[in-house]
Amino acid sequence: MLMTSSEFFRNLPPKQCTKCGSHLDEMHESYVQECDSCQTEGIWAKPN
Ligand SMILES: [Zn+2]
C-alpha cells in the first residue's frame, strides 16, 4: 500500500540537531541537520 506524503512525514521522528540534540524548527530545510546556534558556530570555527 502506498502512503501519502503527509502520512510519510507524520511518521518521521522530530528533527534534532546532530550537534546538540535540540529540536529543529519545522521551517528548516530538509537538508539542515544542525540548529541555528550550531550552524553559526560552524561558520566561525574554521577547520584549520
Ligand atoms: Zn545545535
Q: What proportion strand?
A: under 5%
| Share in helix | 25-40%
Helix segment count? Answer: 2
Q: What is the number of beta strands?
A: 0
Organism: Paenalkalicoccus suaedae
Protein name: YhfH family protein
Describe the structure using short key phrases:
48 residues, mainly alpha, 2 helices, 0% strand, elongated, binds zinc ion, YhfH-like, YhfH family protein
What would you say this structure looks like, in words?
This protein has 48 residues and is an all-alpha fold. The protein has one domain (5-45). It contains 2 helices and no strands. The protein has helices spanning 5-11, 36-44. The longest helix is centred in the last third of the chain and has 9 residues, at 36-44. It is elongated and about 50 Å long. The mean pLDDT is 76. The site of zinc ion has 8 residues, from helix 2.
List the helices and strands and how they pair.
Blueprint: H1 5-11, H2 36-44
Bound molecules: zinc ion (ZN).
The site of zinc ion (ZN) has 8 residues, from α2.
Brief description of this entry?
Helices cover 33% and strands 0% of the residues. With 48 residues, the protein is mainly α.
